[in-house]
Design goal:
Blueprint (H helix, E strand, L loop, with lengths): L12 E7 L11 H8 L3 E7 L12 E2 L9 E2 L1 H13 L9 E11 L2 H7 L4 E5 L8 H10 L3 E6 L9 H12 L10 H4 L18 E2 L2 E2 L9 H19 L16 E5 L5 H19 L11 H7 L4 E7 L2 E11 L14 E9 L8 H11 L7 E7 L3 H9 L3 E3 L8 E7 L2
Parallel strand pairs: 1-2, 1-6, 5-6, 5-7, 13-14
Antiparallel strand pairs: 3-4, 8-9, 10-11, 11-12, 12-13, 14-16, 15-16
Helix pairs in contact: 2-4
The protein binds adenine.
């Protein structure tokens, strides 16, 4: 019997792989994915499809109806294999999302990897030969109630799904919180925000007559960031023009999408908050700003308080705000002394987009989610500068004398219109 660990905050993501070549999946024991399995972050189980055959030759394929080249995988071993996976250590009858790798599927992208990394349980069915009898897909969807997705690694044909599963498990697994120690590295990566990565260099600065670009030795972080952005654009234009989107042309282009934060947003959210915390330190001189010491676990735990919202432009996380409801007085003279207030706090915008419309749009969104009956909207702003205070005034907010437990934080409030 296993006893639930009362300290466990999250159970491992479960990944089942069914294949006629289970040994092909041995690399899943290695490197970061192997370590994540050892650490209990990923629960990977590999099954041999031939264990679900009943003939002497352990047959899994047969000739195609209607004629044609090659062989087709028989439905019966697949149905028994799926039943086995569903019954294994699954007392609550949960259902995995079934992924069938195949060249005819939807493209596997970083965005899809991010989406799949949020699922608690994925099962992969590795086809071989010409593929799997179509009725297996219908059975999985209609009789077993599974979500089934056919996913392609790229526009070329592999001999089977195993290589694709290795690639997908690696891309998905490394996005599971805790698998990559340095969450910042997840953000500064090719494809994370729709652009390829900039060129990188290490010591020595001069090697074989080749010099590191002088800007990288300048120590000027602003110039370096601008140079890297230029390089990313140039590289993406040269190698992957299909990825270039108008939103990359300037900081204000592209559609802003605001959505409820999920655990998959935590690494990017932590980096964004750090950037805002650094600004607060500069503004207040208070090096002990708690936000500066916030860990990934703190950010994850913070998602339990109220509702955290994230704003993205072309996939890049560019802002966040949290809404909570407080009861009773807000300590304000001109506003509500009774009844609940709707509080927007931890409003944070990526440094290169501050002063634009991301902040106001997040604030508007936060206000729009206030439940009926709320009369007072409260904004807790940390170390706002004069321009920000002016913008809040324009939005109808006035400073109030509520005491704040976070240094440098001011409280503003306005009546709900
Ligand atoms: N199986 C065969 N070819 C494939 C591909 N391109 N992607 C995923 N699975 C496959």
């Amino acid at each position: 019997m296993t006893v639930a660990d009362p300290h466990a905050t999250r159970s491992a993501m479960r990944l089942d792989v069914v294949s006629i070549f289970p040994d092909y999946l041995a690399p899943l024991d290695l490197s970061l994915i192997g370590k994540a399995r050892e650490d209990g972050l990923l629960d990977v189980r590999v099954h041999d499809l031939r264990d679900f055959t009943h003939d002497r030759h352990r047959t899994v394929d047969d000739t195609p109806y209607g004629g044609g080249a090659g062989m087709v995988m028989k439905p019966q071993p697949w149905s028994e294999a799926l039943d086995h996976v569903l019954a294994l250590d699954n007392p609550s009858g949960d259902k995995p999302h079934l992924i069938v790798p195949g060249p005819g599927g939807q493209p596997f992208t970083q965005a899809l990897a991010r989406q799949l990394a949020l699922e608690p349980w994925l099962a992969f069915a590795c086809g071989r030969y010409e593929g799997i009898d179509e009725r297996v897909y219908d059975h999985a969807r209609e009789d077993l109630g599974l979500e089934v997705s056919v996913v392609s690694l790229g526009d070329y044909v592999l001999n089977g799904g195993e290589v694709a599963v290795l690639a997908m498990v690696e891309a998905i697994g490394r996005l599971v919180p805790g698998v990559i120690g340095n969450a910042e590295s997840l953000v500064e990566e090719s494809h994370e925000d729709g652009l390829l990565e900039y060129p990188i260099y290490t010591k020595p600065s001069s090697w074989n007559g080749r010099e590191v670009p002088p800007v990288l030795l300048s120590g000027n972080h602003g110039t370096i960031a601008a140079w890297r952005h230029e390089q990313r654009l140039a590289r993406t234009a040269a190698r992957r023009p299909d990825l270039l989107h108008a939103s990359h042309a300037g900081p204000h282009g592209g559609d802003l999408e605001i959505a409820a934060a999920t655990p998959g947003d935590v690494p990017e959210l932590a980096v964004l908050r750090r950037a805002c915390a650094a600004k607060e330190v500069v503004a207040t001189g208070a090096l002990d700003t708690p936000a500066l010491r916030e860990t990934l676990d703190d950010v994850r735990a913070g998602l339990e308080t109220g509702q955290t919202w994230v704003a993205r432009i072309a996939g890049r996380l560019v802002g966040t705000v949290r809404t909570t409801r407080t009861s009773g007085t807000s300590g304000t003279s001109g506003t509500s002394r009774t009844g609940d207030s709707w509080v927007a706090e931890r409003l944070c915008v990526a440094p290169d987009l501050q002063g634009g419309d991301v902040g106001p749009r997040l604030l508007e969104h936060a206000e729009s989610t206030a439940p009926d009956g709320i009369r007072t909207l409260v904004l807790r702003a940390t170390a706002p500068d004069a321009d920000e205070l002016k913008r809040y005034r324009k939005a109808g907010y006035r400073l109030v004398d509520a005491p704040s437990d976070v240094p440098g934080t001011v409280t503003l409030a306005r009546r709900r219109r």
